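thread: overnight batch results

M.L. [08:02]
morning all. the overnight job finished for the chain we discussed friday. pasting input first so we're all looking at the same thing
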Amino acid sequence: QVHVVESGGGLVQAGGSLRLSCSASGTLIGAKTMAWYRQSPGKQRELVARIIDSDITKYADFVKGRFTIARPYLKNTLYLQMNDLKSEDSGVYYCHAQFTAGPITDYWGQGTQVTVSS
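M.L. [08:03]
and the structure it wrote out:
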């Protein structure tokens, strides 16, 4: 069982930066894909950025050039560096890990709140 925990959220002014971290009580090293999602009030959860293994990345158009997802090789942590934050980036950010060795298994964290003031 993997218990995923996010941290690093908070209140920041527009144009500022935050770095989110995702770690786990179990190991995340075996996860094939890890990702950050976010959900704003009244909206569906949406993909922010995804990383496969440690180097294949995909970003939502609305964060390209501003956010960077990173998963240091053989480290049990996922990061999301968020720069030039906008008010529309506010929401709860969730870490997702998917294991594919064996039955596909998904784990989610409880989320961390990001609030960007304009």
